[in-house]
Amino acid sequence: MRLAAAIAALVGLFAGPAGAIWPFDGQDLPDPERDLGQAAAQILSRAIRFHSVNPPGDERPLAEFLGDVLKKEGVEAEVVETPSGASSAGRAALWARVRGSGRRRPVILHSHLDVVPANASEWVVPPFEGLVGGGYVVGRGALDAKGITVVQMLALLTIARRETPLDRDVILLATPDEETGGQQGAGYIVRERRSLLQDAEFLLTEGGGILESEPPVPPVWGVAVTEKTPCWLRVVARGTPGHSSSEPHDAAVPRLIGALEKVRNFESDYRVVPEVARMFASLAPYARDEDRKQLSDLAFWIEFDPTFRGRFLADRGQNALVRNTVTITVLEGGTQTNVMPLEASAHLDARLLPGESCAEFRSEIVDVIGDPRIDVETLLAFDSGSTSPVDTELFRAIQRVAGRFDPGALVVPRAIAGFTDAHYFRALGITSYGFVPRWLPPRESLGIHGPNERVSIRNLERGAQAMVAILEDLGSAGNR
Prior knowledge:
Elements: H1 2-11, E1 12-13, H2 36-49, H3 60-72, E2 76-81, E3 92-98, E4 107-112, E5 131-133, E6 136-138, H4 146-160, E7 170-175, H5 186-192, E8 202-205, E9 210-211, E10 220-227, E11 229-238, E12 242-243, H6 252-264, H7 274-283, H8 289-296, H9 298-304, H10 306-313, H11 316-321, E13 325-332, E14 339-340, E15 343-352, H12 358-369, E16 374-381, H13 393-405, E17 410-416, H14 422-426, E18 431-434, E19 439-440, H15 442-445, E20 454-456, H16 457-475
Parallel strand pairs: 4-7, 4-8, 8-18, 9-19, 10-17
Antiparallel strand pairs: 1-5, 2-3, 3-7, 5-6, 6-20, 9-10, 11-15, 11-16, 12-14, 13-15
Helix pairs in contact: 2-4, 2-16, 4-16, 9-10, 13-16
């Protein structure tokens, strides 16, 4: 902690007293109209200080704070209670709206209020203090996804100040529980509070952004139109408990280790879905000479060119886009060195390609383990996600704005290896894109779910400006 404090002092300014959450009185924030970047930085800094780590979440205080900011600016806003389950934490979503003329169906700006845990020992500054300095806001959630919420909020505030309303309502929806599957967040809204969605036509959420590249490669505006789906499994081994001085042949921990070794060495067949083929075809002109032809027709060449296939699959990110993947993430066993436990278990995070079934994948894992004394339970599974079309006014609006902000930019419909809450909304027929305008070099993205997560104030400012431009282009489409 001494090191963290020293670094913090060198970096610059704290957003407030250590460990405190600033009360909002409407007078101590920079005016977004005069200083958009500093307003974004201060709101985000305070948002990070709300400890909305999921589990248990406790997102309600953050929703109330952000709602107060919006209401102070005259924006219609509501804190929507959501289920807390067995937890005593207060859980809620934030809903807000700027009304348009109603000539066209609404567009939703979606994000989430919960964050993953952060181990302070891995950070150079405390992860929940919302440090502002050196042109950055640092803290858990700066990228995923409190920074997104703030960018969308400021875009909404800017739209609210327009003299002429847009053709569409713009709805802000920031939900809890995304980091553990969203069933009590976005899933709850879709199941029980669908009226809040107001028959929306479009939705923008996390999942895509702008990749800054070195010339001659142009900036790539990646718009996620589909994603892999989660299949979270628990592998359970049971055996004879007792004193560890004499290990029986059926001890739980060794049996679990044997099963996990088989899982670790398992590799599913590769399969190129149309969305992935289209994405790489768009990027092919900017690839290395030896890959350009193959990427233009990925499904063909990955099958019939072993050399290219090996090179393509050696990249972990690319490999994850053409295969079901499975990662061992949680281990649970004994609690004392000299005691053999009755049970040992592990969690598996599997991500499935569009069109795949978790039930079928679970059966495949059972066969891979090949031990009838090992149980495989399903922790989380969704129906295979659908794909949003690209022949839409929203996609064209993103293309036009990309041309203004980054002349020559490449706008690419993409598939992502992660998953978001978008699938809940796609299931209702809402065209949902994973896209938030922020310019991130690859090294910046490492902070997502990792240590030292940060976002530049310039990104917050420019992101809000680009989001406004997209909404104005989309919301005035009937007037062009």
